[in-house]
Amino acid sequence: MGKGGGCVPSKKKLPKPTTIVHESPPESTSNTTARPDPNNNLKLFIIFYSMYGHVEGLARRMKMGVDAVDGVEAVLFRVPETLSDDALAQMRAPPKDESIPVIGSPEDLALADGFLFGFPTRYGCMAAQMKAFFDSTGQLWREQKLSGKPAGFFVSTGTQGGGQETTAWTAITQLAHHGMLFVPIGYTFGAGMFKMDSIRGGSPYGAGVFAGDGTREASEMELALAEHQGKYMAAVIKKLARG
């Protein structure tokens, strides 16, 4: 303090402000934008059981819909057969196309980004072959490796009142215990969902086909609905992947 009570400036020098140097990012050595690696596509597993080929027909058309969406790739798989060859022969089931592999292990499900499960009805529920496959996913359930992954259903029934909705609806319990996200198609197919001038399988739950006595083939409208479901699910997977 000085005599007049004023403050005497300190003779200590203030430290010089630190200069922060920002390094420029390295310049690109290429003027072209890198194209995405096709091997990094999101994977959508279409897993089905088909005895007479009706569900398989929907699955193949569904794959076309998925593959039409950039960045998403569909992979077809069958679930293991539980009936003997003799039983299948007595039921006049045609031989299965070996170009579509049987899924190797339930653990393979963890590699997918999403799923579409297809199966025929058995008294309003999924066929035993598909149920047996879901029953084999206990380790995945225990570790919740499928939680948060989207999944949908497509079905085949013998008659109009044979379970187009209940077959999918009763299957939702499988997804719930795994913590998976059920993705129905709603009425996103547009006007095709309201047509009444011809017989058509499918519902807001997912695509469907009427098999009749086994000789009826899927109509073009039923196949178009399956293709739409493939595109729709692929779009949902992309949205979820963007987070």
Automatic annotation (TrEMBL):
<dbReference type="InterPro" id="IPR008254">
    <property type="entry name" value="Flavodoxin/NO_synth"/>
</dbReference>
<dbReference type="InterPro" id="IPR005025">
    <property type="entry name" value="FMN_Rdtase-like_dom"/>
</dbReference>
<feature type="domain" description="Flavodoxin-like">
    <location>
        <begin position="44"/>
        <end position="233"/>
    </location>
</feature>
<feature type="compositionally biased region" description="Polar residues">
    <location>
        <begin position="26"/>
        <end position="36"/>
    </location>
</feature>
<dbReference type="InterPro" id="IPR010089">
    <property type="entry name" value="Flavoprotein_WrbA-like"/>
</dbReference>
<comment type="similarity">
    <text>Belongs to the WrbA family.</text>
</comment>
<dbReference type="Pfam" id="PF03358">
    <property type="entry name" value="FMN_red"/>
</dbReference>
<dbReference type="GO" id="GO:0003955">
    <property type="term" value="F:NAD(P)H dehydrogenase (quinone) activity"/>
</dbReference>
<dbReference type="InterPro" id="IPR029039">
    <property type="entry name" value="Flavoprotein-like_sf"/>
</dbReference>
<protein>
    <recommendedName>
        <fullName>NAD(P)H dehydrogenase (quinone)</fullName>
        <ecNumber>1.6.5.2</ecNumber>
    </recommendedName>
</protein>
<feature type="region of interest" description="Disordered">
    <location>
        <begin position="1"/>
        <end position="36"/>
    </location>
</feature>
